Task: inverse folding
C-alpha cells in the first residue's frame, strides 16, 4: 500500500526509518491531513477556520462536543468560511462521526484516520483530553490553558510532555502571540541585550465586561447548580475555567515569561477580589480582579494585573524594563523599544498584523506534521500555566509562598470524576474565596 507523501523528498531515509507507525509520514490514505475537533464552541469554530486559512490541504473528518447544536453551528461556520476557497471541500463529517456528551472525546479518538486533533473544550478537561489523544497516537493542537490546577500541571510536566516526545507526536499549544512577528522580533532584541540587564516586567489585561460564557441565554431558566448551566457559563466558574488569570490573562503573562527566558518564579504574593454587584451563585464563584507580584530572582519582579468588571475601562499591554531601555508591547500598539530618555530605538513594522499570528500557529503545527518534524510546546506552556495558577492561589488566599511548593506539593485538583459528572446533574457552587480564609491545599 502507498505511503502518504507527507515527508519532503529531501528528508533522510534514516529519519523515515525512525518514525513510529502512527506518524503521518507512515500513515496510509490521501495526501490531506485529517482533523478531528473536540469542543465545537466559538473557540473551536475559529480554530478550524484559522487552520483552513493556514493550510488548504486539510480535511475535517470528525466533531465532538457536549451539544449537537454546537456541532451543527461549527459545521455551518466551516462551510461558510470555505466558500472563499472555491472548489475545495474541507468538511467531511457525516452523522456517524458527530459525537455528543462527556464521553464524546473517546469516540472521536477511536477513528483511525484522524491525524491531528484540536482540543478546544472548556479548560478543565484539557489535560484529560491531551492524555487521551496522545495515547491514541494523535498529533495535537491544544488551546490555552492546557491545565488549570497544580495536579494537572504536574501530570503534563512529568508524564504527558515526555510521552509526546517519546511517541514523536507534535503538540502545539494556543499561545498564538509567540507566532506574531513583531513580538518575536522584540523578544529577540531583548535576548540580544538591546535593553541591557532586565530589571522587571509588567503585564495588564483590563476588560470592560465580566465574562461568563458565550451561551448563557440558552440555560437562563436553569439553577446555577445545574451542570448544564455551569458548562454554558463556564468562564464564570473556577472549576471549569481556572479563573481569568489562568484562562485569559495567560496570554499576557506568557509573553512576559517568554521575554524573561521562560524562567520560573521563586515566590509569589497577590491580592484580588470580586465586585460586590456580581451576584453569587448566578455569576459564578471566581474573582473579577487580581494583582500578582512574582519574585523572579536576581532582583527582578514581574507584576501581573487583570480585571473583568462591567462598565470599566479596558487596557492591555506588556512592558519589559531593562538598564538600557524599555520594551512596550500591545496588540493594538505601540510595539517598540525606547531608551531611558524616550528615544525610539526600534518600532514594529506596521504591516505585520497581530491577527495573522492566530493563523501562523496552525501553519506551524501543520507544517511540522506534514514534514515529519517533531515539535512539542507543552514544556513552556505548562510553565506559563503554573505561574498563572500560582498567582491565582496567592490572590485567593492572600498568602505569600514559594513557587516550588505549588509546583511540587500542592494537591489542588479541579477535574471531577469524568464518569460521575452528568449534563443533567448538579454540582454545588463553591463560595467566592475570601483572603485570609481560603486554604491552600
Result:
Amino acid at each position: 500500500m502507498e505511503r502518504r507523501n507527507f515527508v519532503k523528498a529531501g528528508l533522510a531515509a534514516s529519519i523515515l526509518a525512525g518514525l513510529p507507525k502512527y506518524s503521518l509520514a507512515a500513515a496510509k490514505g490521501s495526501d490531506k491531513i485529517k482533523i478531528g475537533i473536540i469542543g465545537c464552541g466559538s473557540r473551536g469554530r475559529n480554530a478550524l477556520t484559522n487552520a483552513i486559512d493556514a493550510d488548504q490541504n486539510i480535511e475535517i473528518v470528525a466533531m465532538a462536543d457536549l451539544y449537537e447544536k454546537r456541532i451543527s453551528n461549527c459545521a455551518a461556520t466551516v462551510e461558510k468560511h470555505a466558500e472563499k476557497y472555491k472548489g475545495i471541500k474541507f468538511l467531511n463529517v457525516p452523522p456517524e462521526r458527530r459525537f455528543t456528551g462527556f464521553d464524546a472525546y473517546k469516540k472521536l479518538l477511536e477513528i483511525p484516520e484522524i491525524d491531528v486533533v484540536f482540543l478546544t473544550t472548556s479548560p478543565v478537561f484539557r489535560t484529560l483530553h491531551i492524555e487521551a489523544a496522545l495515547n491514541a497516537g494523535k498529533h495535537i493542537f491544544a488551546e490555552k490553558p492546557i491545565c488549570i490546577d497544580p495536579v494537572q500541571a504536574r501530570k503534563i510536566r512529568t508524564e504527558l510532555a515526555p510521552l509526546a516526545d517519546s511517541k514523536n507526536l507534535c503538540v502545539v499549544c494556543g499561545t498564538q502571540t509567540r507566532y506574531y512577528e513583531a513580538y518575536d522580533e522584540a523578544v529577540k532584541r531583548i535576548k540580544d541585550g538591546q535593553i541591557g540587564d532586565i530589571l522587571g516586567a509588567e503585564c495588564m489585561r483590563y476588560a470592560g465586561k465580566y465574562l461568563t460564557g458565550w451561551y448563557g441565554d440558552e440555560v437562563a431558566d436553569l439553577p446555577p447548580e445545574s451542570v448544564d448551566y455551569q458548562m454554558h457559563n463556564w468562564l464564570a466558574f473556577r472549576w471549569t475555567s481556572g479563573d481569568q488569570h489562568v484562562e485569559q490573562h495567560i496570554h499576557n503573562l506568557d509573553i512576559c515569561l517568554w521575554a524573561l527566558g521562560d524562567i520560573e518564579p521563586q515566590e509569589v504574593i497577590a491580592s484580588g477580589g470580586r465586585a460586590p454587584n456580581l451576584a453569587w451563585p448566578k455569576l459564578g464563584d471566581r474573582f473579577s480582579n487580581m494583582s500578582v507580584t512574582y519574585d523572579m530572582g536576581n532582583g527582578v519582579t514581574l507584576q501581573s494585573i487583570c480585571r473583568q468588571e462591567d462598565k470599566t475601562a479596558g487596557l492591555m499591554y506588556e512592558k519589559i524594563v531593562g538598564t538600557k531601555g524599555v520594551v512596550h508591547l500591545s496588540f493594538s500598539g505601540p510595539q517598540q523599544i525606547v531608551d531611558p530618555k524616550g528615544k525610539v530605538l526600534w518600532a514594529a513594522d506596521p504591516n505585520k498584523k497581530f491577527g495573522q499570528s492566530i493563523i501562523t500557529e496552525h501553519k506551524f503545527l501543520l507544517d511540522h506534521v506534514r514534514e515529519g518534524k517533531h515539535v512539542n510546546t507543552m514544556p513552556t506552556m505548562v510553565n506559563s500555566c503554573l505561574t498563572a495558577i500560582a498567582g491565582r492561589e496567592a490572590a485567593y488566599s492572600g498568602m505569600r509562598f514559594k513557587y516550588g511548593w505549588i509546583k511540587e506539593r500542592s494537591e489542588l485538583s479541579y477535574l471531577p470524576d469524568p464518569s460521575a459528572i452528568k449534563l443533567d446533574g448538579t454540582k454545588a457552587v463553591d463560595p467566592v474565596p475570601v483572603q485570609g480564609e481560603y486554604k491552600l491545599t
About this structure: The chain is about 30% helix and 20% strand. The CA atoms of residues 161 and 378 lie 6 Å apart. Residues 378-397 form the longest helix (20 residues).
